[in-house]
Amino acid sequence: MPPKVPSDTMNVMSSASPTTENTLRIGKYVREAREAAGLSQRQLADRLGCQQPAISRLEAGGVAPGVVTLNRIASALGLELEIGMVSRDRALSTGLPVRFRAEPLAEPVWRSSRERPNVRL
Questions:
Q1: pTM flag (> 0.70)
Q2: 63-118 confidence digits (pLDDT tens)
């Protein structure tokens, strides 16, 4: 079972945002991943150190979580977060390019240190 994230480090979806097509898709992906993990909203909230209504708002599309929050949610579900950048046309035709994966991600191979982004998640 993934460890519970300490509540002092988890500022999960504390502020609501306007519901958009993207927030609805993110909510759908989170709900599907949570259900596939066999967890209730309350169980996921307990793992994240937040309240069940925050998970409900997220799944309903009322919250636009950041990458850190999405990564914490994926970890709480025993998954890895995968983020991809694709053309707007492809994203609109195939859905939001953020999804949860059950298998570990491979480390990318960079040809030089200049190509490697200086970003840590």
A1: no
A2: 999 999 999 999 999 999 988 777 777 766 766 444 555 444 444 444 444 444 44
58 has a pLDDT exceeding 90? yes
**CB count, 10 Å around CB of 25?**
17
Which residues on adjacent β-strands are paired with residue 99?
Answer: 82
**CA-based max dimension of the chain:** 45
Residue 60 contacts residue 16 (beta carbons within 8 Å): no
Other Cβ atoms less than 10 A from the Cβ of 34: the count is 21
Phi-psi region of 105 (alpha: psi -120 to 50; beta: other; left: phi over 0): beta
The angle that helices 52-59 and 21-36 make with each other, rounded to 10 degrees, is 120
- Number of structural domains, the chain? 1
Q: What's 58's domain CATH number?
A: 1.10.260.40
Tell me, yes or no, whether 1 lies in a domain.
no
Q: How far apart are CA 5 and CA 26, in angstroms?
A: 21
The rounded Cα 67 to chain-centroid distance in angstroms is 7
Determine contact, residues 20/65, Cβ cutoff 8 Å. no
